[in-house]
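Hey L., structure's done. Input below.
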Amino acid sequence: MPVKLYKKEDQGKLKIGQVLYSKRFDLAVDRDLCKGCDVCKTVCPREAISLKPLPKGEDGKARLPHVDIAVEKCDFHDICGATCPYGAITVSVDDKSHIPVVEKECYPTLLRQISVNSDGCDPGCRVCEEKCPLKVVSVKFEPITAEEAAAKGIRVAEGKPPTRTIVEIDKAHCACCKVCEAACPAHVISVGKFFNGNIRIDQEKCPEGCHDCLDVCPVTALYLENGKVCPNDEFCIYCKACLNVCPRPEALHIQRTSVRHTPVKSGTWNKSLEKLTSVAGVKREFTAKRLSKAKEAVKNLPVEGA
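Output:
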């Protein structure tokens, strides 16, 4: 039994905690990073997480709901943090950052497959930094010699001193929306989504002139065309933030079909995967695992006559 429970709002963060005789557990939700999606609420096995709607802003635009957590229900295993697409939830044990379920190898983390060949960037280009909807990309330039530039095949802007472009992506908070990949003029960025799925909008069911979903989409996966909101599957990460503010939820159809994640050996994840996708999604993952094991077994078969 905990000796003490606490819950407070502090410097833009929701903070909850429990103090035991030998340990202290703290969980924080960064309001700036949180995008009001349904992922943490969906995977929480204790049903401790809820979403509180907020009124529209003074500009008339919809606002993302606020995550709330019932501290008396939370077990501080950080299943929510391990699955958060935006890295908005963190747990610490005695002031040290931890993801208990991951450290015990009973739960995975989202697999963020991101690669950048900075040497191939156009000279002076900052497009990826400018286009990133979450502002997790930064670009800087370091001076190099002409010889170094020639050796690495780095292009140099005419009349300017040679520089090396360094693209840094904050992977812990990257939602892998692929906006930077699509925007990069030199095609040197590769991003693999961790959520795969599909999105469809039944525009006949949308209220006239309503753009609430467009107002809150964290990754610019929605756009206006002839006054109607349309989805862009290329950028959508299927987090369902848009669905949480839609006044007619039946107009939005969002399905997650699979999740890319680090290896795990636990039934705990299977339950979460079913909630995030479907029974079919779990079956697909089991099938993929069986095929992978079969291929590995074939590779390890002794070669006849060897």
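Residues 279-299 form the longest helix (21 residues). Residues 209 and 227 are 7 Å apart (CA to CA).

-- N.
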